[in-house]
């Protein structure tokens, strides 16, 4: 058992000694590094480590939480006593508790590859060189790339230990690294920026600095001299980067916390057809090497794969043990929290299953429409499904990307958009815990001139 | 007051000699400037949901950040352990940014001038937890009592005290004790079998719990959240396309934060990546517009006695009668632009590098009567409350989300409309301001501004303002 897990287990034991009927404790440590470069010079270097612990205690149906960065014996004692004091001022919640002991455990399958030595072994000079290279390549793509907001290389090493008073004790380590660049393109008084980013749990899985620099520059260039189109209703294609954001809004609507409060337009729709047959959504925290994977969730429940929407039918909400009890369902292992507090619900790898057609093929099928490459200030009302966002993209004319557009908004209602989701592209890539291929929505309102 | 009676001296035994030695370590490989930011943050929060006080939590975090500046380069490291060995280690890591002979640290510190802006009548530590629980219970009861159609209420109360010590290699020493408190209430309402609608209201500032007993009660925020949810029950689809837009007073000032504020932060302008870069002295708004960023307003959420680099905050004029006047500077940008800090260097915590940020951003009041402004609009939209906003500082395009709006038809507010995004371009949007009301209001104190992954509390304010042309992102053609 590591030092972190020792602390977590000792804190839960101490809570029981002091009169708690249940306790769960998370202890984590992390080491972060970031190197920022701009216009071929190093701009900043940051490096540090930190640790923290958090406990949640139960006194019958009362709960209290406390978080601290002081892991000394005294710090832990203060934390445990603090949480117990807090529990006394809450009111009894008949659904409060720890998970069903039968649900506790680790994912029992192949290694999840959450930690790779290559990240800790990478030299600072190499990290800086990668950022410099990515920016250099971006600046060299075209004379209209005149400036840069910089490039950065980040890495993070973490460890997380969790124990509860039902006897669960588990821990895991994680690693991640990432490279990004933000070039600025300028022409005839038009100035635009865009970015490209690659991240992975092991260094060899990163895209090359050349690829990152080139893609970022191409994206910035194609935004130059945008037009503002007229207000109209047209088909809209979300590229993977923006489709992923839309999917994030949809996550909020299948979150058990919103369901039991009747604060989701999908409440009460389990088993109903709520989307087009083209749509299948999975949540899977057991995919090796991905950012949404973990052996167990943040209350010690074994990770798993859950089909959320299957060919348009709502199959499951995503739940932790609390929301499951509220809804008289079983937890899906989606408990999520920082260090302390009652667990919320978070995604594993939450993704739209890839379709058969290429993104180019999707575009080719649209006579007149919008291809969205950036969403600004997207606002989705989970309660009603109303959706409205600023958008940047390319106008589609006769199946081809014709010219850039900006300073427009797109709007619709999520429940209608799900029904109108006509096509799903084949280009599914996991760049974070939420992932989507390109998707085509049959009609949305564009607001412009 | 000197270091000796300060929080960090008393609790951790830190002396001026210690500070000098850490700063010397930070400059051991050269560099022109180094600073230390000590932080001790204690927070507490309580939440009620379904009428049950489901959560109560507290936290204590502390640490020190060490920064070294060498030309345009910044080295940064931090430690959550205040033992001398750990702080020295962080200083050596931050020093890696510089490559040269050691620089000399000025001996002796001068305590920085600072404001006295916070009302700390009751220290949060002196208030029993039970009293704080009462606030959320009152909010829950008031929202439910407002209308029988309200069926779900979530209310949260949170407060914190942040003890800060900043010491720099040029001899600046400053202390601050920064309180913060807020209440937030969300309400859901529905007709018998209808679709639910939500409302949200919240507020607070650099105050302590007594503010919610004496000035803005939990009932005030609860009724406002419930009122908004009820209004939405009869809302029609928002219009799509260009429209005359009238912004109500207060929180709609987020327009200024997004449209001009971010674009005037000096880091973006030093790098030439803002749509406002190189435009000082140019007309960027209607002559009716004067926009201020002011960190010195008593008790406001965005206010600070000293910024997070130990510099006293200021009242900074950004736009004067439509002319762009100045940028928001932190220490680094001021050094590189041969200017002076405007007291705008802020950071989320000791784990973060400071950068230029806004405090409380607002537009000065004009001459027009607010009712006359609405009467002057034959067809348009009136926005009373907003959610968040966002800006692309390079193109200048910004959005903000109206959460409570009404159609204006023949000079009168008629039907409420659903939430919609409004979009405009920073250097252009304010040129269309044709009337400014005499009713300047600051917001209730709920703003959080995000930039490069760092969140800081901010305030905004605006009088009733008429904008002749702006794009409204609804669905009704």
Summarize the SSE layout with pairings.
The complex is a heterodimer of chains A (449) and B (477).
Chain A: H1 3-17, E1 22-38, E2 41-59, E3 62-68, H2 73-87, H3 117-121, H4 124-140, E4 145-164, E5 169-187, E6 190-193, E7 196-200, H5 209-221, E8 232-238, H6 240-254, H7 256-260, E9 281-284, E10 305-310, E11 313-314, H8 321-327, E12 335-336, E13 344-345, E14 349-352, H9 359-364, E15 368-380, E16 386-397, E17 400-413, H10 414-419, E18 421-424, E19 434-435, E20 439-447
Parallel strand pairs in A: 8-15, 14-19
Antiparallel strand pairs in A: 1-2, 1-4, 2-3, 4-5, 5-6, 5-7, 8-20, 9-10, 9-14, 10-11, 12-13, 15-16, 16-17, 17-20, 18-20
Helix pairs in contact in A: 1-2, 4-5
Chain B: H1 7-12, H2 16-26, E1 33-49, E2 52-70, E3 73-79, H3 84-94, E4 110-111, H4 129-146, E5 150-168, E6 172-189, E7 197-205, H5 210-214, H6 218-232, E8 240-247, H7 254-261, H8 266-270, E9 291-294, E10 315-320, E11 323-324, H9 331-336, E12 345-346, E13 355-356, E14 360-363, H10 370-375, E15 379-391, E16 397-409, E17 412-417, E18 420-425, H11 426-429, E19 433-436, E20 441-442, E21 447-451, E22 454-462, E23 465-473
Parallel strand pairs in B: 4-6, 8-15, 14-22
Antiparallel strand pairs in B: 1-2, 1-5, 2-3, 5-6, 6-7, 8-23, 9-10, 9-14, 10-11, 12-13, 15-16, 16-17, 16-18, 18-23, 19-23, 20-22, 21-22
Helix pairs in contact in B: 2-3, 4-6
Q: What's this, in brief?
A:
The complex is a heterodimer of chains A (449) and B (477). Chain A is of the alpha+beta class and 449 residues long.
If you had to describe this structure to a student in words, what would you say it looks like?
The complex is a heterodimer of chains A (449) and B (477). Helices cover 23% and strands 38% of the residues of chain A. By secondary structure, chain A is an alpha+beta fold. In chain A, strands 1, 2, 3, 4, 5, 6 and 7 form a 7-stranded antiparallel sheet that branches. In chain A, strands 8-15-16-17-20 form a 5-stranded mixed barrel. Chain A has 3 domains: 3-31 and 48-103, PmbA/TldD superfamily (PmbA/TldD fold), CATH 3.30.2290; 117-161 and 172-221, PmbA/TldD fold, CATH 3.30.2290; 227-449, no CATH class. In chain A, helix 1 (3-17) packs across helix 2 (73-87) and helix 4 (124-140) runs parallel beside helix 5 (209-221). Chain A has 10 helices and 20 strands. The model of chain A has no long low-confidence stretch (mean pLDDT 97). The termini of chain A are far apart. The longest helix of chain A has 17 residues, at 124-140. Chain B is α+β, with helices and mostly antiparallel strands and 477 residues long. Chain B has 2 domains: 7-232, PmbA/TldD fold, CATH 3.30.2290; 240-473, no CATH class. Helix content of chain B is 20%, strand content 39%. Chain B contains 11 helices and 23 strands. In chain B, strand 6 and strand 7 (197-205) form a beta hairpin. In chain B, helix 2 (16-26) packs parallel to helix 3 (84-94) and helix 4 (129-146) packs parallel to helix 6 (218-232). The longest helix of chain B has 18 residues, at 129-146. The radius of gyration of chain B is 24 Å and the shape is globular. The model of chain B has no long low-confidence stretch (mean pLDDT 94). At the A-B interface, strand 2, strand 3, helix 2, strand 6 and strand 15 of A face strand 2, strand 3, helix 4, strand 5 and strand 8 of B.
